[in-house]
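Narrative of activities, Objective 1.

The group set out to show that a structural description can be obtained from nothing but a protein's sequence at a throughput compatible with the screening campaign. Below is one input-output pair from the validation batch, recorded exactly as produced.
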Amino acid sequence: MKVAVPDVTKQKLMQSNNKEKKMLKGIYTAMVTPFKEDGSMDREKIEMIVDAMIADGISGVVIGGSTGEFFLMSLEERKAQVKAICEIVNKRVTVIANAGCLNTADTVDMAKYCTEAGADILLLVPSWYEKLTNDEIVAHYKAVGDAVDTPIMLYNIPGSSSNDITPEVAAQLAEVCNATCMKDSTGDVHRQYQITWATKGKVQPVCGADSILINALAYGTDATVLGVTNAISKECVALYKLVKEKKDLDSARLLWDKLLPVLEFAENNEYIAVTKRMCKMRGRDQGDPRQPVLPLSEEKTAILAELMAGLDEVKDVVEAAFI
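Output recorded for this entry:
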């Protein structure tokens, strides 16, 4: 008689991780990655910006997302970044770590590492460049689900990955891995409720497109992941409080009138370069992007500075949101 041998590795990861499924609420920052002149990661700058954002009231950080230039980093660099930020955050807010890699074996390896390092949730983008079939996407996620039980945030960004995780595919993924939420960056606000409908509430929609933030929050979306909050975390947290907690849409619209031009500028230009330049403008210098991504041009910087100045006009609205 053949006796089934338990997967000790998976059991260990499940026991050590012991994550509870919970609803995400608030503003989560897709962190930039600060590089020193020699190309190494700048831990001091990470500590500074993490402390500043937590003081502003963010609910969590996303390590190694698109804004974090993960696609320009080696697997070893990405692992070192996850370890460092988990240590720096030290359970003060939720940590979401990107485990997505081009091939499934590396993705599983990264998922195990992020789990052991202390990430609360795994961000998982499908393999990019090659357009995959739905069956291939499901098999990719199932491999991760078979290796760890850490909650997974599906990451749908078809403009960069060439693969669209439709709400219907998300429902399939919820059955083969611990997919509890989905960051949708299509910019289609309808996706926010379509995800809920298709998955019968198993997968929580998370807004991943800056310019539809107020629409998504007003509809009922409870969480969003933004890159610009590296610099303007207080303004975005204030918007969340005004819409979701105070139900003060009049004040929210006043803030949104000044916030939206900044968000649209970031989305319609070089997002990473814009975000890092915004950090410099706000005294949270995170250095320049890693090539081939270049710093924002001086011409565009001047436009950005003018848009950022508009936020000074709603400082009172921002402060009132925290009272």
